[in-house]
């Protein structure tokens, strides 16, 4: 029997989370996908909560069907991953949490301001 895996990719915008997720898993979801309309990214901060709920629901939909899933969100705080750990437990999945670092001086395709990136860096929590 194959091990069912939920892969959580963490990192700052522009670090390569989405790129890696697409390489390692056919089922890939992230909150940013909620903001794509007619092929164009249209971020609306007032809808961030709905975007994360959509991402969580899409993940659960795929886990119910037995797919391996990669979720690529910033997950700057450990508690932000907890709902995904609960889903994994509920559906019998092993969780892999990976931190993706920007080692290529890439820029966010979503044009995240440097001030926002700096705030996210200071919030980024790693528990060993």
Give the SSE layout.
Blueprint: E1 5-10, H1 17-24, E2 27-29, E3 36-37, E4 40-41, H2 48-64, E5 69-72, H3 82-91, E6 94-99, H4 114-123
Shape: globular
Task: Please give the count of helices.
Answer: 4
**Main beta sheet, described?**
4 strands, parallel
Taken in chain order, the helices and strands follow as EHEEEHEHEH
Explained architecture:
Helix content is 35%, strand content 18%. The protein is of the alpha/beta class. α2 (48-64) runs parallel beside α3. The longest helix has 17 residues, at 48-64.
Characterize this entry briefly.
This protein is an alpha/beta fold. The chain has four helices and six strands, in the order βαβββαβαβα.
Keywords:
single chain, 128 residues, alpha/beta, four-stranded parallel beta sheet, two-stranded antiparallel ribbon, 6 strands
